[in-house]
Amino acid sequence: MLAPGPFPGGPSGSPPAAPPAAHRTGWIEVVCGSMFSGKTEELLRRMKRARLARQGNVLFKPRVDNRYDEVKVVSHEGLNAESIPVASAKELLSRVPPAVVVVGIDEVQFFDDGIVDAVEALASRGVRVIAAGLDQDWRGRPFGPIPALMSVAEYVTKLHAVCARCGGAATRSQRLVAAEGQLFVGGSAEYEARCRACFVPSPIAAP
What we know:
Elements: E1 27-33, H1 39-52, E2 57-62, E3 73-74, E4 80-81, E5 84-86, H2 89-94, E6 102-105, H3 114-124, E7 128-134, H4 146-152, E8 155-159, E9 161-162, E10 169-170, E11 172-175, E12 191-194
Parallel strand pairs: 1-7, 1-8, 2-5, 2-6, 6-7
Antiparallel strand pairs: 3-4, 9-10, 11-12
């Protein structure tokens, strides 16, 4: 379900709040899109609402993503929150306390394929899982476990950035440096958002 309308049981445009423990049913939310589309901001917004509702929560990030901070999840705009850096899906699953009812995961595309089973296990035990990440890599191809996560999620939100070339709706991340490999972590100096028409499926130098 891409860009759904009002969610049952929740405010328009957002997933429902976690129900009382006695009636708790877990689910998976995926927030995806290109770089600079606001994925991390949306993840942090949802996690903030969980904290305000006094729902036990924990936020994770892949240890490989240390662009802005070793521990905190930090958006390109500077919003941040404390998180637990982990190296694998197995480690993430082992570090979720029993009392937690909301789990946030940033840059989920950098996790191994085991993250799909991990979030399904969490949802099956009554946890609301919010996973944010890139749905396409620098070649415009599906990125890591994101397609599988989207297929098992109850809610999928696809965000768009602004194309750095034409100002249109950007859905792709243009790599600006000649680095190979899918797992190249970078920011505005290494990537920019592009629409389909302006995107080039190979590294190019910024003008």
